[in-house]
Amino acid sequence: MSRFFRSRYSNLIPYTPGEQPRNMEYIKLNTNESPFPPGESVVRAMEKAASRANLYNDPECTSLRRKAAELYGTGADNITCTNGSDEILYLAFSAFFDEAAFPDITYGFYKVYADVLGIKADIKPLREDFTIDVSDYTGIGKGIVIANPNAQTGIALPKSDIERIVASNQDSVVIVDEAYIDFGGESCVDLTKKYPNLLVTQTFSKSRSLAGARIGFGIGNEQLIADINTLRYSMNPYNVNTATQWAAEAAIEDNESYMANCAVIVENREYTSSRLRKLGFDVLPSSSNFIFAKSDRLDGGYIYEELKKKGVLVRHFTDERMKDHIRVTIGTREQMDIFIGKVEQLL
User: Fold this and answer.
1) Is the separation of the CB atoms in 287 and 155 below 8 Å?
2) 12-20 long-range Cβ contacts below 8 angstroms, 24+ apart
3) Contact between 346 and 307 (Cβ < 8 Å)
4) Euclidean distance between CA atoms 179 and 211, whole angstroms
5) Where are the alpha helices (H) located in the chain, listed in sequence order?
6) What's the whole-model pTM score?
7) 134, 139, 140, 143: CA torsion to nearest 10
8) How far is residue 251's CA from residue 230's CA, in Å, rounded to a whole number?
9) Signed CA dihedral, 330, 331, 332, 335: sign only
10) What is the distance of C-alpha 128 from the center of its chain?
11) What is the pLDDT of residues 271-326, one digit of tens each?
C-alpha cells in the first residue's frame, strides 16, 4: 500500500475472483462459466465488429436494448446495458443505497461494494439449512439485494417470496440479482412492471456463454433506469464495446440454442448431485449451474487442494460457515465424470 492510498480504504478487503491459472490444462469447475463455447453467429458478429474498432461504440446500446426488451418482455427504456452485471450492481448500490441488507453467504461483491461506497451493511445470516429467512427482509425500510438463485448455495426463493419482500419495502429499492436464473429459478422481471422499487439484474456470462465478453442488464422502472444511466454517463458512457453489443444481439437471436444448453447443464447437475450423494456428500438443492456440497469424511480445503493437483479446479471458501464445502460448477457430462472419478480416488 502506498502512502497516497486514501485512508478510508486501508481496511478494504477486495473481492477475490475465481482462479484462472495458466500453468497447466485444468478442468475448470470453479468460476461458473458455461462449458459450451458461443455459437457461430456470435463469433461472426464479434469478428465483424473488429473492423469498426476505430469508431466509438453506441453508448445507448440502442439495438441491443430493443432485442433485450423483446426477450424480457419489457420496453427498451426499462433496460440499461452494462459491462457485466457487476457494473449494474455497482451503479445501483451507488444510486440507491445508504444502507443495504443482504445475506451473510451470497455473492461476495455486495459486501465489497458496501465497503467501497461507505454504505452500512445489514448482513442477515442464512438459516442453518442455508435458506433465506424472508421475514428478515420484510418491512425493514432499507435497501435490499438478494441473489436469486443465491450464490454460493444455489438455492432459489420462489417469486412469491420475492414479491413479499418488494411489496413490504416500497420506499426502498430492492435488487434481485438473477445471474443464475436460467438454470431453474423463477424470474421476477415481470414484477418490475408492478413495483417501481424493483430492479432486476441479469448477465449473459453464465447461460449464454459470454463471460469473457462482459455483458449485463438492469431491468426496472424507467425512472430507476434513468437514475442509473445518469451515473453511468457520469462515469463511463462507452461501457459496452461494439463487439460485445453485437455478440449479445446474436446470442438473443439464437436464444433457443442457449436455453437448450442450460437444459443439458441442469441434467448434468442432477446427475452429479446424485453421484455425490451416493458417495456420502451432503449436496444442497440447486437451481443454478453449480452445486454446493460437503463430505463428512474429507475437509473442503483438502478436497480443493487435492483435486487441483489432479487437474480439476473447484471453488473453496474459507469463511467459517462455508469452509467444509466445495462449490462445483456444472460442466459437460465427460467433465463431471472425471470430477467424480477424482473424488472417488480421494475417498
Assistant:
1) yes
2) 12/112, 12/115, 12/116, 13/112, 13/115, 14/112, 15/108, 15/109, 15/112, 16/108, 18/315, 19/313
3) yes
4) 11
5) 40-50, 62-72, 84-96, 109-117, 159-167, 222-235, 242-253, 255-278, 300-309, 333-346
6) 0.96
7) 80
8) 28
9) negative
10) 23
11) 999 999 999 999 999 999 999 999 999 999 999 999 999 999 999 999 999 999 99
Would you call 57 helix, strand, or coil by DSSP? coil
Instruction: Order the strands of the 281-283 sheet from edge to edge.
Output: 281-283, 290-295, 325-329
User: Would you say 310 and 345 are in contact if contact means Cβ atoms under 8 Å apart?
Assistant: yes
Are 241 and 215 a contacting pair, CB within 8 Å?
A: no
Classify 309 as helix, strand or coil: helix
Tell me if 165 sits within 8 A of 174, measured CB to CB: yes
Q: Give CA separation, 239 vs 126, 131, 178, 199, 233, in Å.
A: 35, 35, 21, 20, 9
Residue 58: all three cell numbers together: 453506441
Distance CA 344, CA 347 (A): 5
Q: Side-chain half-sphere of 31: how many Cα atoms within 13 Å?
A: 16
Bridge partners (DSSP) of residue 281 are: 295
Residue 165 near residue 172 (C-beta atoms within 8 A):
no
- Give the type of residue at 146: I
Residues 47, 37: Cα–Cα separation, whole Å = 15
Q: Tell me the residue type at 259.
A: M
pLDDT in tens, 130-156: 999 999 999 999 999 999 999 999 999
Hunting for cell 414484477 — which residue is that? 191
Note the residue count of the chain: 347
